[in-house]
C-alpha cells in the first residue's frame, strides 16, 4: 500500500483525507457520483492541472512555448481549461481540431500531426488555417492538390523522423523505420521539391517518444533535436529561401505510475533547454520553440472511480468485482502498450488510508482499518479485465468505491467503451 500511493502528486495528497474519504476538487466521491448520476466515472481536478502547468511554465525558459496534445485527454471542458493555460494545441484528428478551434485558440497555434490524414482532414485543416504537420511525401502531394483546388496556400510543418531515438522511453516514436514523419535523410529532397506556390513551410516537428521518466534521455534527445533542427533550418534557407518560424521539439515527459517510478527531473530538463537556447542562436533568435505535452500536464489530476458490485473468494483468493474495468481504463488493465502488467496506484475511495512515512496527508484515519489482500477485477468475461492484482487495501465491501489514481491521460478516450455493451461512463472536471 505504501508503494502504491507513494507517488501521488503532493497537491492531491494534501487534498485527500477527510475522514478517510477521497475528495476530488473539494468534493467527496459520493457527491460526485450524485452529480454524474452513476459510477463508473472519471473525475479531473481543475486546480491540480492549473498547478502543474503553472509549475512547468515557471521552470522552463521563458522562450519556450507550451502546447497541449489533446490526444492525452480530449474531454471538452478540460480542453477548454487548457486553452487558458497553454499557448497552443496539438491535434491528431479532424474532430480534435474542431474541438481545439471551438475553445477560441487561434488556428495558427494549432498543429495537426499524425499519419494517414484523409483528403477531408487536409481540406478542413487548410480551410481552418491550422498548420498541417506533414508525415510523408504522399501527404505533401495531397496537400498541394487540395490547396490548389481551394485556392488557399496551406500552412505546413515537416515532421521529421530523426535518425536518433529517445532512449528509456515507454513508447519510442523515432529512429529506424517509422510510420511517423519523413526520414531525416529525405528532407533535402523534400525541400527541393516543395510546391511553394501551394504551401507555406512554417516549421519542423521532431517528436521522439512518450512516457519517459529519465531526464538524461530527454536531455540527450533534445540536444540531438536542436542540432538537427539547426541543420534543417540552414538547409531550408539555402534551398527555398524560407525563414523557419517554429520548431516543435515534441515532449515525452512521463509521470510515475508504478512503485519504482520516480518523478521526472524537470529542473534538469529546463536547465538543458536554457543551455541549448544559448548555444543555438539561429534557433533562439528567430524561431519559436514549442514543447508539446499531453500526459505530463493532466495524468496526475485524474482518477477513475468505480464501485464494487460483488465480493467473492475463489480457492483462497478474494476478488472485488467492480462495475468498471478494462473497457473504461485500458491502460490500467495493462493492455495499452505494457509488456508486463503492473498496478496503477489504487485505493478504496471511502476508506482511504494514509501513511505518516510519506506524509500523504495531514488528517489520518483515527483507527487504522483492517487490511486484506485482494484482486480487483471488472465485469467483463475476460481474464484481461484487471483493475489491480494482489493489492493490500482496507477491507472493502459491495458499494465501496475503487479509485485508480494517475488516470487523467489516455483513460476514457483510449479505452474500448462499447466492449460488451457495459455501463455508461461519465467524466467531470471539478
Ligand atoms: C505527435 C505527438 N505529440 C504529442 C504526443 C503526446 O505525448 P505525451 O502524452 O506523452 O506527452 C504524442 C503521443 O503519442 C504524439 O504522437
TrEMBL record:
<dbReference type="InterPro" id="IPR029066">
    <property type="entry name" value="PLP-binding_barrel"/>
</dbReference>
<dbReference type="InterPro" id="IPR017530">
    <property type="entry name" value="DCO2ase_PEP1"/>
</dbReference>
<dbReference type="Pfam" id="PF00278">
    <property type="entry name" value="Orn_DAP_Arg_deC"/>
</dbReference>
<feature type="domain" description="Orn/DAP/Arg decarboxylase 2 C-terminal">
    <location>
        <begin position="42"/>
        <end position="408"/>
    </location>
</feature>
<dbReference type="GO" id="GO:0009089">
    <property type="term" value="P:lysine biosynthetic process via diaminopimelate"/>
</dbReference>
<comment type="similarity">
    <text>Belongs to the Orn/Lys/Arg decarboxylase class-II family.</text>
</comment>
<dbReference type="InterPro" id="IPR000183">
    <property type="entry name" value="Orn/DAP/Arg_de-COase"/>
</dbReference>
<keyword id="KW-0663">Pyridoxal phosphate</keyword>
<dbReference type="InterPro" id="IPR022644">
    <property type="entry name" value="De-COase2_N"/>
</dbReference>
<feature type="modified residue" description="N6-(pyridoxal phosphate)lysine">
    <location>
        <position position="71"/>
    </location>
</feature>
<dbReference type="InterPro" id="IPR022643">
    <property type="entry name" value="De-COase2_C"/>
</dbReference>
<dbReference type="InterPro" id="IPR009006">
    <property type="entry name" value="Ala_racemase/Decarboxylase_C"/>
</dbReference>
<dbReference type="Pfam" id="PF02784">
    <property type="entry name" value="Orn_Arg_deC_N"/>
</dbReference>
<feature type="domain" description="Orn/DAP/Arg decarboxylase 2 N-terminal">
    <location>
        <begin position="49"/>
        <end position="299"/>
    </location>
</feature>
<protein>
    <submittedName>
        <fullName>Pyridoxal-dependent decarboxylase, exosortase A system-associated</fullName>
    </submittedName>
</protein>
<feature type="active site" description="Proton donor">
    <location>
        <position position="381"/>
    </location>
</feature>
<dbReference type="GO" id="GO:0008836">
    <property type="term" value="F:diaminopimelate decarboxylase activity"/>
</dbReference>
Amino acid at each position: 500500500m505504501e508503494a502504491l500511493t507513494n507517488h501521488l502528486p503532493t497537491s492531491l495528497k494534501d487534498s485527500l483525507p477527510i475522514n478517510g474519504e477521497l475528495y476530488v476538487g473539494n468534493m467527496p466521491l459520493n457527491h460526485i457520483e450524485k452529480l454524474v448520476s452513476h459510477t463508473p466515472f472519471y473525475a479531473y481536478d481543475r486546480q491540480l492541472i492549473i498547478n502543474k502547468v503553472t509549475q512547468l511554465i515557471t521552470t522552463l525558459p521563458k522562450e519556450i512555448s507550451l502546447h497541449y496534445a489533446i490526444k492525452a485527454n480530449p474531454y471538452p471542458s478540460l480542453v477548454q481549461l487548457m486553452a487558458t493555460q497553454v499557448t497552443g494545441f496539438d491535434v491528431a484528428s479532424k474532430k480534435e481540431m474542431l474541438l481545439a478551434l471551438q475553445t477560441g485558440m487561434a488556428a495558427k497555434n494549432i498543429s495537426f500531426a499524425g499519419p494517414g490524414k484523409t483528403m477531408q482532414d487536409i481540406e478542413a485543416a487548410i480551410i481552418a488555417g491550422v498548420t498541417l504537420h506533414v508525415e510523408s511525401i504522399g501527404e505533401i502531394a495531397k496537400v498541394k492538390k487540395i490547396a490548389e483546388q481551394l485556392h488557399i496556400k496551406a500552412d505546413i510543418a515537416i515532421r521529421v523522423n530523426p535518425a536518433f531515438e529517445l532512449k528509456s522511453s515507454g513508447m519510442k516514436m523515432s529512429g529506424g523505420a517509422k510510420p511517423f514523419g519523413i526520414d531525416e535523410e529525405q528532407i533535402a529532397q523534400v525541400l527541393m521539391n516543395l510546391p511553394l506556390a501551394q504551401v507555406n513551410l512554417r516549421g519542423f516537428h521532431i517528436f521522439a517518444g512518450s512516457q519517459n521518466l529519465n531526464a538524461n534521455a530527454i536531455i540527450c534527445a533534445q540536444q540531438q533535436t536542436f542540432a538537427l533542427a539547426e541543420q534543417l533550418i540552414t538547409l531550408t534557407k539555402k534551398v527555398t529561401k524560407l525563414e523557419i518560424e517554429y520548431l516543435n521539439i515534441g515532449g515525452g515527459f512521463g509521470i510515475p505510475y508504478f512503485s519504482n517510478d520516480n518523478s521526472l527531473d524537470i529542473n534538469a530538463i529546463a536547465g538543458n533547454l536554457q543551455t541549448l537556447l544559448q548555444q543555438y542562436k539561429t534557433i533562439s533568435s528567430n524561431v519559436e520553440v514549442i514543447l508539446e505535452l499531453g500526459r505530463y500536464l493532466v495524468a496526475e489530476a485524474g482518477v477513475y472511480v468505480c464501485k464494487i458490485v460483488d465480493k467473492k473468494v475463489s480457492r483462497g483468493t478474494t476478488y472485488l468485482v467492480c462495475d468498471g474495468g478494462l473497457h473504461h481504463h485500458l491502460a490500467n488493465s495493462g493492455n495499452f502498450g505494457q509488456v508486463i502488467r503492473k498496478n496503477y496506484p489504487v485505493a478504496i475511495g471511502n476508506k482511504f488510508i494514509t501513511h505518516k512515512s510519506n506524509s500523504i496527508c495531514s488528517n489520518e484515519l483515527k483507527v487504522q482499518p483492517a487490511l486484506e489482500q485482494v484482486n480487483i477485477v471488472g465485469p467483463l468475461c475476460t481474464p484481461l479485465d484487471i483493475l489491480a492484482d494482489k493489492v493490500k487495501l482496507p477491507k472493502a465491501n459491495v458499494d465501496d468505491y475503487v479509485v485508480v489514481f494517475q488516470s487523467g491521460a489516455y483513460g476514457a478516450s483510449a479505452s474500448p467503451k462499447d466492449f460488451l455493451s457495459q455501463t455508461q461512463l461519465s467524466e467531470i472536471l471539478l
